[in-house]
Amino acid sequence: MEMGSRTEVDEDGDNNKGRMWDLDQQFDRSIEEEAGRLKNMYTEKVLNRVFTNISLLLLRLAFQSLGVVYGDLGTSPHVFYNTFPEEIVDPEDVVGALSLIIYSLTLIPLLKYVFVVCKANDNGQGGTFALYSLLCRHANVKNIPDQHRTDEELTTYSCCTLIHEKSFAAKTKRWLEKDTYRKNALLILVLFGTCNVIGDGILTPAISVLSASGGLKVAHPRMSNGVILVVAVVILVGLFSMQHYGTDKVSWLFAPIVLLWFITIGGIGAYNIWKYGSSVLKAFSPVYIFRYFKRRRRDGWTSLGGIMLSITGTEALFADLAHFPVSAVQLAFTVVVFPCLLLAYSGQAAYLFNKGDHVIDPFYRSIPGWDSCGARDVGNHGTYDFNHDTEMHGKVSMAWILGLGPSLGLVRVPGTGLVYTELASGVPHIFSHFITNLPAIHSVLVFVCVKYLPVYTVPEEERFFVKRVGPKNFHMFRCIARYGYKDLHKKDDDFEKKLFDNLFLFVRLESMMEGCSDSEEYSWSEPPSEHSRDGNEWGNTMVSSSVNTTVVSYMNMGQISRSQTEMDELEFLNRCREAGVVHILGNTMVRARKDARFYKRIAIDYIYAFLRKICRENSAIFNVPHESLLNVGQIIYV
Question: Residue 7: left if φ>0, alpha if ψ -120 to 50, beta else—which one?
Fold first, then answer.
C-alpha cells in the first residue's frame, strides 16, 4: 500500500510540474508577442511621423516654388492674339492652335523638363553651367586651365556614372574629345545659352507685366497707354526691389498670389468650356495639328511664334533647381500648373470658337462679366584664358629663382606679400618684373591663385590647397583657392584670415610629416625635375592632398612634439603677418607687335582691349582692400 501511494504521488507531482512548465511557456510567448506588437507599433509610429514630416516639407517646398519658378510660365495672356494677329478665318483653326499649345506644354515642360532635364542636375543645381560642369567631369572637354589631379578628390567633383563603351553617350564623349574646335564650340554654346537666359530674365518680366497691365483698359477703355506704362514700371520696380530679401521670403510672398492666379485662370477656363461648349476638347487628338498646317500652310508655320509664348519661362524649371529640389518642382507642375494651364487655354479656345472676332484680347474678354469694349495688347571664354596663356608663356623657371638665393638677390623687408596670379604652378612673370625694378621684397611671399572649378561649390575644408615653392629658407609658398560656380568669392570677407590659417596648418603638418618620414605612408617624394609637369613646386604635394588623414594621425601621435624648426617658422610667419600684408596684383597691358598682321592687331589692340576695359578690376574680384593694394604694371607684346 505504501509503495502504491508513493507511486501515485510521484506521478501527480510530475504531471503538475509539466502543467506548470507549459503555463510558463505560454506566458513567455504571450509576453514576447506583446513586446513584438508594441515594438512594431512604435516603429510604425516613428516611420509614419518621418514620412509625414517629409511629405509636409515636400508640399511646402512645392507651394513655395509656385512663387518663384512658375510666375512667367503662367502669365501669357496674349498667346492666341499673337497666333492670329489678323483674324480667325476658320473656327477649326482655333482647335488646331489649341492642339499645338496642348502638345507644346506636354512635350517640352512636362516630359522634357520635368521628367528628363531636371534629373540631369549637378548635386541639385540646375542651369547652363550645371550641365557644362557635368560634361566637363564626365568628358575631357573643359577649357579651364590649371587643373590639378587633387581637384578630382573634392567631394563635389565626384562622377561615378559608368558609361558602356558602345553606348550613344560614349560615342558622343569620344566625338567631343576628339577635336579642340568642338570643345571651343561647346564652350561658346554654353556662354551663348547663358547670355540668352540673362536676356530672358531682363526682357520677359517687363513684357509679361506690361501685357498683364494692359488688362486695365478692358475695365477703363479711356485709360491712356502712358498710364499703363507707369503702372507696369511701378510693378516692376516693386518686384525687383524685393529680390534682395532672398528666395525664401520672396517665395512665401508670391506663392499665394501665383496659386490664386492658377486656380482662377483654371476655374475661368472650366467655366468657358461649360458655357461655350466642350467641342474644343477634341484638340487633344494630334490629328488636328496635321490638319492645321495642311489648311493654313505658310501662315500655320509663322504662327508658331505665338504658340511658343505658351511655354515661355520653361527654362526656370531647370535653372531654379538651386532653390528647390527636383521633387518639389515636379509636384507643383504636375498637380497645379499643368492642369490649370490646360483648362485656361482650352477655355479661351472655346470662347474664340464662338466669338472669333474677339481675337484681340480673348484672355480678358473670356472672363465672366468682362465681355465688352476692345483693348489693345501693348506687348506686341574669353579674356579670364588669354591672360592665362600669356602668363604661362612668360613664367619664370625655378632654376632662375634658386640662382637668386634665399634673399632673391634683394633686401627682404618685414611683411607678407600676396602675389596674385592665374598660374597654379610656376612663378609668374609679373614677379620677375617686380623684383627687377624694385630693390626690396617681402620676407614672406605667397603666390595666390584663385581657380573656378566645374562644380557647383567647393566645401570650406577643401577650398585651400597650400604648398611650398623652393627651399624652406626662401619662405615662399603657393596657395590655390578653389571655388565653384555658385560660390561668391567677393562675399568671402575672411579670405585673408582663412589663407593664413591654412598656411600655418600646412607648416605644422609639414613638420609633423618630416618627423614621421620613416613611415611609408607619409614618406616624402624627391623634388621633381625641372622638366616635369609641375617642376616649379617643391615635392610636398602629399602634405596638402592628405590633410584629413594626416590630421587624424597627428592627433593620435601625441608623443611627437613640435620641432624647434616648426616653432621658429610659425613665429616668423606670424611676425611677418603682423608687420603688414600687401596684395600685389599684376596690371598687364597686352599689345600686338608692330609686325603683327592686320586682323591680329584689330583683335588685340581694339577688341581685347575693349573687353578688358568693361571687365571688373581684379581688386574688386579678389575683394582686396585699397589701403594694402599694390598694382604692378607691364606691357606684353604678342
Answer: alpha
Q: Which of 447, 391, 378 is nearest to 416 (CA)?
A: 447
Cα of 496 vs its chain's centroid, Å: 25
Strand extents, DSSP E, 430-534: 440-452, 464-468, 476-483
Take residue 74 and report the three cell numbers written for it: 503662367
End-to-end CA distance of the chain: 130
Query: How far is C-alpha 461 from the geometric centre of its chain's CA atoms?
Result: 19
Could you tell me the pLDDT band of residue 346, with boundaries at 50, 70 and 90? very high
pTM of the model as a whole: 0.63
Q: Which residue has the higher pLDDT, 446 or 619?
A: 446
pLDDT value of residue 442: 84
Tell me which residue of 558, 556, 559, 553 sits closest to 522, measured CA to CA: 553
Task: For 585-608, give the DSSP string.
Answer: EEEEEEE--TTS-HHHHHIIIIII
Crossing angle of helices 495-515/564-579, nearest 10°?
Answer: 160
Q: Give me the DSSP letters along 288-325.
A: HHHHHHHHHTHHHHHTHHHHHGGGTTTTHHHHGGGTS-
Nearest of 275, 343, 341 to residue 312 by alpha carbon: 341
Q: In this structure, what C-alpha cell is assigned to residue 52?
A: 509625414
Between 207 and 536, the more confident residue is 207
Crossing angle of helices 180-213/225-241, nearest 10°? Answer: 120
499: three-class secondary structure by DSSP: helix
Distance, CA of 372 to CA of 576 (rounded, Å): 80
Q: What is the DSSP letter of 504?
A: H
Within 300-439, strands assigned E span 411-421
Please tell me the least confidently modeled range out of 170-174, 374-378, 383-387, 404-408: 374-378
633 by Cβ neighbours in 10 Å (0-12 / 13-18 / 19+) ranks as exposed
Residue-by-residue DSSP string for 41-93: HHHHHHHHHHHHHHHHHHHHHHHHHHHHTSTTTT--TTHHHHHSSS--S-HHH
Residues, the chain: 638
Spatial separation of the C-alpha atoms in residues 455 and 154, rounded to whole Å: 9
| Separation between Cα atoms, residue 557 and residue 426, nearest integer Å | 35
Cα–Cα distance measured from residue 468 to residue 445, given in angstroms and rounded to the nearest whole number: 10
Extract long-range pairs of 553-558: CB within 8 Å, 24+ residues apart. 553/516, 553/522, 554/508, 554/509, 554/512, 557/512, 557/516
